[in-house]
Amino acid sequence: MIHLNGEFMPIEQAKISVLDRGFIFGDGVYEVIPVYSRRPFRLEEHLARLQASLDAIRLANPNPLAKWTELVEKIISGNPWEDQTVYLQVTRGAAKRDHAFPKGLKPTVFLMASELVTPSADLVENGARAIVLPDFRWLRCDIKSTSLLGNCMLRTLAADQGCVEAILVRDGELTEASASNVFIVKNGTVLAPPKSQLILPGITYDVVLEILHANALPHEVRPVAESELRSADEIWVTSSSREVLAITTLDGKPVGTGKDAGKPGPVCKRVHALYQQYKAKVMGKTQAGFAQAVIEVVKRHAPDFDPATLGMRPSREGKYLSLTCNVRAVSREQLDELYRELCDHPMVTMVL
Ligand code: PLP
Known about the structure:
30% of the residues lie in helices and 28% in strands. It has 10 helices and 19 strands. Strands 7, 8, 9, 10, 11, 12, 13, 14 and 15 form a 9-stranded mixed beta sheet that branches. Helix 6 crosses helix 8 (266-279). The two termini are 24 Å apart. The mean pLDDT is 93. It binds pyridoxal-5'-phosphate (PLP). Pyridoxal-5'-phosphate binds next to helix 6 and strand 13.
């Protein structure tokens, strides 16, 4: 089931005008939101980025936040998968073909979902191949625009060589990849290029930086030279669907040196594991008894859960507490029941 301009329908029935500026000019913006166990991940942040993209192309947001949340929730419940990606797109609407933005058009709003496919166990274990290419895209890569021809060309050049990604450099510096952000590790320090108009401000990029900070892993956000990329000990790409994926072969050569050369490095493995834990989170208002109440529910469904391993992190203003539970489950049903009971608990605000 998809959503188009206020209506829900099967995708085969969805129709738009051939004069839609999204079709004619790529005059639109989009978001891709990962959904775990039917919960959108970092929805607020995705909708804030949507607003930034809309502002950058002078397109009024057709929906308030609450309406977007409702639409996303309806799409999630109208589709069969537990883990999904929700794709949403706003274009300027239909008008006589003319480059300058016309005023007063009715924007076209489209949402669809597909099954969330994260990297296979083999890719996580062995990493992926990438090539380095010159970043020949435009200078506003911070806008999540539907005009993705440059990214599509670069990704195709990578695919031609059996690679999953094209890692891009502009003026001797790393920018990002054709559909992901890039981190490298050099001498134990994680390096990430700063946000600018030359890269998309990835939501996963932010999550990874938060994880690095929260776990006191050495990291620097600063320009990364092409030579540093090429001599990196580790390279990873991050995105909502790829999560944290090691690049182990760059331009046909193994990444790194020594015994880990050509394999996912130790920092990547750690961050990948922390990212997976981060998704298994229970959040609630900071109040007496919250952690204990969660421990009791978890123990009911996973008796060997050790409360000493419970991770706790207060939100920035201290109003919310997020708990991370590592649970060994023997069946999907066991996890589903635990998830349901946590969702129904009056002290729990959100379960991921
Ligand atoms: N950079 C580009 C060019 C992308 O297309 C994407 C995602 O599709 C990203 C970075 C990663 O963004 P996010 O982590 O929000 O998925």
